[in-house]
Each structure stands twice: as structure tokens, then as C-alpha cells.
Amino acid sequence: MAGAESVITFRETQMRFGRVRALEQFDLDVRRGEFVALVGPSGCGKSTVLRLASGLIDATGGTMDRATDNVGYVFQDATLMPWRTVRENVELLGELEGMDKAERKRKTDEVLSLVRLTEFEDHYPRTLSGGMKMRASLARSLLLDPELFLFDEPFGALDQISRARLNEELMALFGVKRFSSVFVTHSVDEATFLATRVFVMCARPGRIVEEFRVPFDYPRDPAIRYSTEFSKLAGAIAEALREAS
Amino acid sequence: MTLHAGVPETQEIFEEEFTDTGTWREGAMTTMKNSVPPLLVFLVFLGFWYLMTYLVLDPGRRWLLPPPHEVVTEGFLVWDTFLEIMEGLWLSTKVALMGLAIAWVIGSTMALMMSQAKWIERSLYPWAVASQTVPILALVPIIGFWFGFGVTSRVIVCVIISLFPIVINTLTGLLSADRGLHALLSLHGASRWTRATKLQIPAALPHIFTGLRTAAGLSVIGAIVGDFFFGRGKPGLGLLLDKYASRLQSEELLATVFVACMLGIVVFWGFGAMGRRIVGAWDPYWAGEQDA
After folding, report:
1. Which of A92, A119, A145 is the last residue of a domain?
2. N or C: less crowded end of chain B, CB within 10 Å?
């Protein structure tokens, strides 16, 4: 990996909210085309990392450098606008960024078919299942072809089956688009299945305590989740996570 | 032990989930299901009324509660009386709707300002609450003193009593927009204006209709109550009530009461229909109202 260009770099980054030390001495490098997962106990500042990375908030110390402004943010909930249909929701960012109408339509068609929601484009979110809402949310962030994706526990609210399925779909998307990602999750399995590197964080103050390299090639077969190698690695990550909590 | 000890209420809820995509027949069935029970209650009410008039009241005191058919013949079938009541209805409707329109403009502006800056919210909110707690009767003499005892003062009463639900519901709605969506709009450089038009106002619509519907009902009350105090000029429904009561014309009095009730119901229903039409497709609350 040495020599690959960084998309985002944190150096001794510090974030304080009043007296609360959310992050301290936080270092992280995400290289182009790399899928990084962050796992850690609740309240360890995982979401803070994403807010800093997106520029929603500014660090109180250290530095954060980002090589691109084209960032996609996927939230824990689908955060769709209930008054817009699936298609209208997907078009939102195009409207905000002044994408012209024909281009917007073309891109919307493309991303809707990528997440297999074409036949539901005229549905309002309230009539969709949790998994479909999340896919619509993914489609929305794909519209602008972001170079860097920030995922804030996007599948945490879904049932196991939908979650596994969306992991596989995200894997396929990553295979096609090769964006760079920071993926925050509570699930060790999810992190191991998706990421090139998994970082374990500890709380108060939040920082990285351990790094794991995931050796599997992309695209990954869903069945690797049941292999011995996968279990061993996931077990080691889970152990590190337990120590960090 | 029975395996099918289905709870009827639960069963109905589940069945409704599957029958709402109805055909014409199912639609007609739903209408029947919804309209027959209240109609039965109305019939029971009429029966009770006749009972009171003919069995409870002594013939010499029957004028206190004339039977329903006499209310209809005296109140609605005598042309002059009918005309008088309809003119009163028209005036009260105008007063109520004018008051509501003004309250809507003022209330929405207040709510919009309050949603944009915390300090404005802190400054205005207590006054919005105060406008609700001030006993309107205490203000009546001074409203009359300043604006005369005619239509203007009646409209002002309507504005004051319908302002509160509009401000509160609109503000709640404007602030209800999802935090994630706020963040998303910020990330893509949305201006205050874009944020308001693309996020806050659409998110507020269901609440706005709830507020309007409540306010409309209150405005009708204001128009009728205002009449009692500001009697100059053409009479609205309130003045007619006053007049018929003082002349012991109970048939006309009850006919006017009926018309006043109908006005309240129609206004409430009208704004409900508007809400269902505009936001019913996507808002769970107003979509649920669709069955009502």
C-alpha cells in the first residue's frame, strides 16, 4: 500500500466539546480506493470522526486534510424526505449542486438501477421496507459519484437478513465504483467482510488502539464469512474491541 | 384450548391493512361502515329530544324545547326567518375566515422568524402563549373602545383566539425536520432560503394543517362570541342567538344553534379535507385521516 495517495489524513487530531474529550491524539490515513472500517464501544467518538471528515465540524486541535470535496455521507437512518418520492429523494443533491435536468435524470436512472429500486421510483418512503429505504439513501449519495464515502452505522437499524444482503450489495457497488470509504459500525462481522483495514477505537478520549489488515480480495464471496480464516480474524478484532471497552 | 382465539379488535386492524386498496364495492362498504353508526346516534338523539318535549315537559312549558319538526318549519321554512339566519351565517362565516386568514399570515410569519433564530423564539414564544391565556373577555371593552363595535372588532377577536394554534403548530413543524437532513443540506452548501423551502416548510405542512384546522374551529367560536359584544351593524349568528333568546323565539333560536354547529363542522371538515388532499399521500397522520 505504500506510496498510494491519501484521500483523508488525520494527524494528532483533537476534538473537545466543552470539557468532554471526544477525540485525542487521533491518527488515521485513508488511501485512495481503500475501504476503512472503524469499530469501537458506544461513545468512543466514531461519529465525531465522520463529522470532522465531512467538514460538518472543525477540529479543536491537530489537523485533518482531505484531498477531495466530493464526499458522500450515509447516515444511520435513511433520512429520506417523506414528502418526496424515491426518485425525487435521489435527485435532491443534484438539485442542491445545480446539476442540469437531463444529467440529473440520467444519473438518477443509473443509480436507481444500481440499487434495484427502479420499479419503486414513484413510491413514497413510508411505503418502503427498512432495507429499501436504506438502498434509496445509498442511491441518493451515489448520485454525485463521491470519491470519499462516510458511512455512519448505515445498516444498524436493519434486521440480520436485510443487513447481510445490503453488505453484499455495498460490496458489489464498491467493486464497480472503487470509492474510498470510512465505515463506522458496531458489528465486527460487517467490518471484516467489507473493509481492507479495520481500526479498533477506545473511548474517553476516543483514539485508535489497534489496526487489522483484512487479506481477502475483492469482490468477496458472501461465503467467506463462514471460513475459518474469517472467523479467526473477526475473533481477534472482537477480542481487541473487548479490551478497548 | 383453542388455537383461534382471535381478538376481534386486532383482527379488524389487520384486515384494514389489506382492504384499503379498495374497489368501488369496498369503498361503498367503508362509507357505510363509517356513516351508519353516527347516523344511528343522531336518530337516538332525536328520539330523546321528542321524549323530552312531549313526555317530560309540561304542555305549558313546551316552548322551552319545541319538537325538532317545529324547529325546521319555523326556522327554515319561514322565508324571512330563513333569510335572516342565512345572512347571519354569511356574515359570521366572513368574519371567521377573515380572522383566520389574518391570523394565518401573522402566525406563520411569527413561526418562520422563530424557527430561524433561537433568540427570536425566546423573545416571542412567551407572548404567543400569553395570547392564549389572556381572557378574551377582558380585552373586549378595549377592542371596542379602539376599533368600534362593528365588524372590525369581531375580526380582531377571531385573530386573537386563532393565532396560538397556528404559531405553535407551524413552529413545531418547522423544527421537526430531520437532523440528518439538516446536516446533508449543510454539506451541500444550502442557503437559509433553500433550507426553508426544501426542508423546513415541507416538513411543517402536516403540522400547519393541524394548526389551521384547530384555529378554524376557534375562529368560528370567536365570530359568534364577538357578536355578543360588538352588536353594531349587521347581525351575525351570535346576535341572532341573542335576539331570539330574548324574544323567547325558541324554534328560531334552536335553528340558529343548528346552523352555527354546522358552520363549525363544515369549516373543520373543509380544512381536514385540504390537509388530506395535500399531505395525505406521504404523511402517516393525514393518511390515517383518509379513512375517517
Report:
1. A145
2. N
Contact across the interface for A126 and B287, Cβ inside 8 Å = yes
- If one counts every other C-beta atom within 10 angstroms of the C-beta of residue B46, the result is 13
pLDDT digits (tens, 9 = 90+) for B233-290: 788 898 899 899 899 888 999 999 999 999 999 998 999 899 888 888 888 888 776 5
- A114 in any annotated domain: yes
Reported ipTM: 0.85
Alpha-carbon distance of A40 to A51, in angstroms, equals 16
Q: Supply the CATH number for residue A202's domain.
A: 3.40.50.300
Report the residue of A56, A58, A69, A81 to disrupt the B interface, i.e. the one with the largest count of B CBs within 10 Å. A81
Question: Rg of chain A's alpha carbons, rounded to an integer?
Answer: 18
Cβ pair A96:B190 closer than 8 A: yes
Residues from chain B contacting residue A79 (CB–CB below 8 Å):
178, 180-181, 184
Report how far apart, in Å, the C-alpha atoms of B249 and of each of A32, A125, B254 are.
88, 57, 9
**Which chain A residues have a beta carbon less than 8 Å from that of B281?**
124
Beta-bridge partner residues of A17: A20
Res B15: pLDDT: 60
- Which residues neighbour B55 within 8 Å (Cβ) at sequence distance 6 or greater? none
Give the distance, in angstroms, between the CA of residue A209 and the centroid of all CA atoms in the same chain.
20
Q: Do A83 and B190 touch (CB under 8 A)?
A: no
Q: For domain B73-289, give the fold.
A: MetI-like fold (1.10.3720)
- Are A194 and A34 in contact, with CB atoms under 8 Å apart? no
Among the candidates A125, A145, A165, a domain finishes at A145
N-to-C CA span, chain B: 37
CB spacing of B202 vs A55 below 8 angstroms: no
State which residues of chain B have pLDDT below 50: 1-2, 291-292
Partner-chain residue, chosen from B180, B183, B282, that has the shortest CB–CB distance to A83: B282
Q: Is residue A101 part of a domain?
A: yes
Please tell me which of the candidates B187, B202, B203 has its beta carbon nearest to residue A56.
B187
Residue-number span of the structural domain to which A135 is assigned: 80-145
Crossing angle of the two packed helices B136-147 and B201-229, in degrees rounded to 10? 70
Q: What is the pLDDT along chain A (245 residues), one digit of tens a residue?
A: 444 688 888 888 888 888 888 888 888 899 988 999 999 888 788 888 899 988 888 888 888 888 888 899 999 888 999 999 999 999 999 889 888 999 899 989 988 988 888 999 999 998 888 888 988 998 999 898 898 999 998 888 888 888 888 888 888 888 888 889 999 998 999 999 999 999 999 887 888 888 999 888 888 888 888 999 989 999 999 998 888 87
Report the residue of chain B nearest A83, measured CA to CA. Answer: B282
Indicate the pTM of the whole model: 0.81
Q: Do B180 and A79 touch (CB under 8 A)?
A: yes
Q: What is the pLDDT of residue B257?
A: 93
Average pLDDT, chain A: 88
Tell me if A93 and B188 make a contact (CB, 8 A cut-off): yes
